[in-house]
Structures are given as structure tokens and as C-alpha cells.
């Protein structure tokens, strides 16, 4: 397939490149600002993870005081298996070319998050079963597992936190575009609405919201650039789709207004992350009043 490039397509390419560069720049700048690190110093994600006081125990514990870590493991496993089955069904029905659509990339990212969550929950259940009491704090665990393991666990938690935030914003964007743009205006043309599509665009948000209600992970609204630095759709999907066939008519590169749409899609990520951050904030604000003896604010 020959790619025909128009002059205004370079604006689209520049928009994608600028989104990636700006996100990484904000990521590194935010990290230095939080830690007071010199610009000449070595920069890593691990200090940023520590600076937010996100203990590794929060990867597998629930915000509900009496909820055993095994329940979080159960919900994460159920979410992972259900979403993996839906994605496998989609691939078997349409073959691997289905990954030209944004939904599949977002769906796969959420599956990756639940897979990481399962691994963290399994480890948390092992700790719980060995009576390494979580109430005594992380330092007790560190004395038993060692500093090297703690560093690996913190790095793992850093990436798990990042994927959680990235998934949240991407799912909001996916479902808004699907339910408010594709279904009302495009489902009768190039997109055939079916049960599988409805299930996928319901399961991604439903399982992620259930996870949010149960877990202890924070959502750093003021630091959403950290997630944008690893933005799944921009860094992976956007570049691949620009160089191949665009399945969405409103983002086709052969239209003169394509740069406006690409710029709009880059900007719309901000309110999408803000919307999910508002959900997490509402959870941490309302639940302590509704369930004062059962809910612990992360």
C-alpha cells in the first residue's frame, strides 16, 4: 500500500511527535521538581515512585480495611480472564488485523495492567499467609526480603501505577468516542455495531471502575503527564496508524482538516485523565463519610 503524503499531513506527524516529546519533557521536569534533583543528575522513575509515598503494599491491599488481599486477587483474575476471552474472541472473528483499531490497543493495555495486578496480589497473599503483618509497615517486610528485592518491587510498582493511570485515561477516551461519536453517527456506515463491540466497550470501563473502588492505588491528577509520557495510543498506536490505514473516517490523513482533528485528539486527553481523576477523588472524598469504619483513604 502506497502512502500518499500531503503537505498538511506533516502537521499531523508533528502533532504526534510533539505530544511524545512534550510528555517526556514534563515527565522528567516533574520528577526533578519533586525531588530537587540537578538537571545534570541521573534521572529515574524509582525516586518519583518513592516521592509520592506509594508503599509497595498498596499494590495488593484494598482500601477496605477488612477485605482480604485474596478478594482483590479474585477480582483482578476475573477481570483479566474475561477481558482476555473477549479479546481472543475478537481476534478469532476478525484475525490479527483487528489491531488497526484503537479499542484493541487500549483493551490490551488494561489486560496488561490486570496481569501485573494479579502478580502483585499473589505476592501480597503470600505475605499475608506467612503472617508478615501489613500493619507493621513496609520496613518489616524489607528486613526479611532485602533491599535489592525492595528496589525491584518499587520499580515494578512504578510501572504498574503508570499503566493504571494510562489505562484510565485511554479507556475514558475510547468509550467517549465509541458511544458519543461512532455509535450515533458512524455505526450504520463503516462500523457495524454488534454484541462483541458492546461487551468490549462496557467491560473495559466496568472492570477498571471495579478495580478503582477496591484498590489502594493513587491517581496523581496534577502529575498526569507521567502517564502521558507512556501514552499507549500516541507512542504505539498513533504512529502505526499514521503509516497504515486509518479506520476512523474523521481522522483520515487525506482530508485538509486532519490537523485539526489530530490536535483535538491530543488535547482531549487532558479532560479524559481529569475525568477519571475526579472519579478517584470522589471515591476518596465520599466513601470515608459513607463508610467511616470500613474505608481507609489511600
From TrEMBL:
<dbReference type="GO" id="GO:0016020">
    <property type="term" value="C:membrane"/>
</dbReference>
<keyword id="KW-0812">Transmembrane</keyword>
<feature type="transmembrane region" description="Helical">
    <location>
        <begin position="105"/>
        <end position="126"/>
    </location>
</feature>
<keyword id="KW-1133">Transmembrane helix</keyword>
<feature type="transmembrane region" description="Helical">
    <location>
        <begin position="168"/>
        <end position="186"/>
    </location>
</feature>
<feature type="transmembrane region" description="Helical">
    <location>
        <begin position="260"/>
        <end position="279"/>
    </location>
</feature>
<protein>
    <submittedName>
        <fullName>Uncharacterized protein</fullName>
    </submittedName>
</protein>
<feature type="transmembrane region" description="Helical">
    <location>
        <begin position="71"/>
        <end position="89"/>
    </location>
</feature>
<keyword id="KW-0472">Membrane</keyword>
<feature type="transmembrane region" description="Helical">
    <location>
        <begin position="6"/>
        <end position="28"/>
    </location>
</feature>
